[in-house]
UniProtKB/TrEMBL annotation:
<dbReference type="InterPro" id="IPR022865">
    <property type="entry name" value="DNA_ligae_ATP-dep_bac/arc"/>
</dbReference>
<keyword id="KW-0233">DNA recombination</keyword>
<feature type="binding site">
    <location>
        <position position="234"/>
    </location>
    <ligand>
        <name>ATP</name>
    </ligand>
</feature>
<feature type="binding site">
    <location>
        <position position="401"/>
    </location>
    <ligand>
        <name>ATP</name>
    </ligand>
</feature>
<dbReference type="InterPro" id="IPR012310">
    <property type="entry name" value="DNA_ligase_ATP-dep_cent"/>
</dbReference>
<feature type="domain" description="ATP-dependent DNA ligase family profile">
    <location>
        <begin position="316"/>
        <end position="441"/>
    </location>
</feature>
<dbReference type="Pfam" id="PF04679">
    <property type="entry name" value="DNA_ligase_A_C"/>
</dbReference>
<dbReference type="GO" id="GO:0003677">
    <property type="term" value="F:DNA binding"/>
</dbReference>
<feature type="binding site">
    <location>
        <position position="227"/>
    </location>
    <ligand>
        <name>ATP</name>
    </ligand>
</feature>
<dbReference type="InterPro" id="IPR012309">
    <property type="entry name" value="DNA_ligase_ATP-dep_C"/>
</dbReference>
<dbReference type="InterPro" id="IPR012308">
    <property type="entry name" value="DNA_ligase_ATP-dep_N"/>
</dbReference>
<comment type="similarity">
    <text>Belongs to the ATP-dependent DNA ligase family.</text>
</comment>
<dbReference type="InterPro" id="IPR012340">
    <property type="entry name" value="NA-bd_OB-fold"/>
</dbReference>
<dbReference type="GO" id="GO:0046872">
    <property type="term" value="F:metal ion binding"/>
</dbReference>
<feature type="binding site">
    <location>
        <position position="395"/>
    </location>
    <ligand>
        <name>ATP</name>
    </ligand>
</feature>
<keyword id="KW-0235">DNA replication</keyword>
<feature type="binding site">
    <location>
        <position position="318"/>
    </location>
    <ligand>
        <name>ATP</name>
    </ligand>
</feature>
């Protein structure tokens, strides 16, 4: 895949490189812009039928027969011997898809279909296949960010090692098309000068996990800043004058979801800023933090006064990345925390994450218990060293989370991707009884199985999951899924669920860490259980990685050995 992309990028005229990068993942702009086509499968079938002058039913039947609209389009074009009226160019495809994405309001659907028909009328059978998949947002080429970054490094610098510079720029801007353009126009030196900007989300810094307090302290040099780990939604808030942007953990623009939070932040920090906070629902009279599930009620398309009053939110700020023209990501954590303390006028709705500098196991343990009592998940222990910069897009030991579950040997819950399912029995016959769950391997860009989970689901969960999964069913194992087990149903990797379990063990059937810990064995999770938490805030590529699971397994061995 990387080699093909290198070849493509080398052939791409410089002024088109950003567009080709976006189109290779089926988009016309970075994900954070939220620019989607809003073009359902039905609409695509209609456009296809009208261009070919056939019945819509025929396109539908062909799609059912082949299991994919793209394949159906290609087959129908070939059967009809369709002659395109012209040749397609990248510019035209990009321009038309952009128009489709931006068309909304009265008469939008008709206009979208007309625009798309124009593209279809100029397409060859293979182009039809990918145009259809693109517009219904199921391109599924299996190209991830990592593949694109590797290919850019090789194509334009001749050396894959230069990917680190591309990655740094990407982590600060979350826009690979933009980084690619700077690379082509200004070379690697240009890429090295890319800085964070208000309005463009910064890819989040993430925490490592450890389950032994003494080892956490040792790792952090005997002393650390321990902060409550609030169990809410991570938000990155940006302000430029009166303009605000809120981004979710997966960098979706969620500004419209929290107008109340924006008002609170406006009053609390009277400067331009980029801050990070955990947003939770509180019980207004007592300030008591409500469970994560309550916050899910605010995940609606249109937030009304009802939502704002029924589910009042508060933000606990834990980092600041930018203040009035100054990039703070290169400053150490104690300095960033001090800045937060200085500039934030705290209220009952905007507060700083409760924090204590601890230097003994007793202090750390007692702070942890205090956090749990306050309704938190645990604590995040942060390095106080001068190297403790904000590492965008990285999971490292500058932050270590500690969230112990006494019933489990795991240092943390796992966020796994649903890739398949097995039929249930009795009332659930014909529906799923258990789900095949996978972790993410960023090196191979694959999803590898870890467990089959059938417990922890309520009746409501079954109903909700049946609905969600129906939309993402596919005929065969997805090409990015690596599984020995043969599931009854397969899904495209899409949905991330939080799973807990008793312990990680060597497994002859799960492909996670295959051959990496022991020959012909992988790692599996024993007694897996769904915690009830849907991780809509994570993309499949944000799921727990194979490498993390290997580290958790090694830690668990160490922990059990005392
Ligand atoms: N004081 C805090 N400092 C940093 N992160 C915090 C804090 N309180 C809550 N959090 C949350 O904890 C997360 C850090 O854990 P991690 O980096 O593993 O993210 P994650 O993969 O979303 O995992 P998790 O499932 O534990 O939230 C942050 O993404 C943030 O949402």
């Amino acid at each position: 895949m990387t080699e093909s992309l290198v070849e493509l990028f080398k052939k791409t005229p410089p002024e088109l490189i950003d567009k080709v990068v976006y189109l290779s993942v089926g988009r016309i702009a970075p994900e954070y812009t939220g620019l989607d086509y809003n073009f359902g499968e039905k609409l695509a079938m209609r456009a296809l039928a009208e261009v070919l002058g056939i019945d819509e039913h025929t396109t539908e039947e062909k799609t059912i027969e082949l299991g994919d609209l793209g394949d159906a389009g290609k087959a129908l074009y070939e059967e009809k011997g369709f002659k395109p009226k012209d040749k397609l160019s990248v510019e035209e495809v990009y321009r038309t898809l952009s128009e489709i994405a931006k068309t909304s309001g009265y008469g939008a659907l008709k206009k979208k279909v007309e625009l798309f028909k124009e593209l279809l009328s100029k397409a060859s059978p293979i182009e039809v296949k990918y145009l259809l998949r693109t517009v219904i947002e199921r391109l599924r080429l299996g190209i991830g960010d990592n593949t694109i970054m590797d290919a850019l490094a090789v194509a334009f610098t001749g050396n894959q090692e230069n990917r680190v510079h591309i990655e740094r720029a990407y982590n600060l801007t979350s826009d690979l098309g933009y980084v690619a353009r700077i690379l082509v126009e200004k070379g690697l030196e240009g890429v090295k000068t890319i800085k964070i900007e208000v309005g463009r989300p910064v890819r989040p810094m993430l925490a490592e996990r450890m389950s032994v307090p003494s080892l956490i302290l040792k790792k952090l040099g005997g002393r650390c800043g321990a902060e409550y780990k609030y169990d809410g939604e991570r938000i990155q808030a940006h302000r430029k004058g009166d303009q605000f942007w809120l981004y979710s953990r997966r960098l979706e623009n969620i500004t419209h979801q929290f107008p109340d939070l924006i008002e609170f932040l406006k009053g609390a920090i009277p400067y331009d800023f980029i801050v990070e906070l955990e947003c939770v629902v509180i019980e207004p009279s007592s300030g008591q933090i409500q469970p994560f599930q309550v916050l899910m009620n605010r995940r609606v398309k249109y937030v009304s006064r009802f939502h704002i009053l029924k589910y009042p939110v508060a933000g606990f700020l834990f980092d600041i990345l930018y203040l009035d023209g100054e990039d703070l990501t290169t400053k150490p954590y104690p300095e960033r925390r001090k800045t937060l303390e200085k500039v934030v006028k705290t209220t009952d709705r905007v507060n700083l994450a409760t924090r204590k500098v601890v230097s003994s196991v007793e202090e750390l343990e007692s702070f942890f218990h205090e956090a749990i009592e306050e309704g938190c998940e645990g604590i995040v222990c942060k390095s106080l060293a001068k190297e403790s910069i904000y590492e965008a897009g990285k999971r490292g030991f500058l932050w270590i989370k500690y969230k112990r579950d006494y019933k489990s040997h795991l240092a943390d819950t796992l966020d796994l991707v649903v890739v398949g399912a097995f039929y249930g029995k009795g009332q659930r016959a014909g529906y799923f009884g258990s789900l095949l769950m996978a972790c993410y391997d960023s090196e191979t860009d694959q999803f590898k199985t870890v467990c089959k989970v059938g417990t922890g689901f309520t009746e409501d969960d079954f109903k909700k999951l049946d609905g969600i999964l129906k939309e993402h069913g596919i005929e065969h194992r997805h090409p990015r899924v690596n599984s020995i087990l043969s599931a009854d149903m397969w899904f495209e990797p899409f949905l991330v669920l939080e799973i807990t379990g008793a312990e990680l063990t060597l497994s002859p059937v799960h492909t996670c860490a295959w051959d990496k810990v022991k020959p012909s064995r992988g790692l599996g999770l024993r007694f897996p259980r769904f915690t009830g938490k849907y991780r809509f805030d994570k993309r499949p590529e944000d799921a727990t990685t194979e490498q993390e699971i290997i580290e958790m397994y090694l830690q668990q061995k160490q922990y059990k050995a005392g």
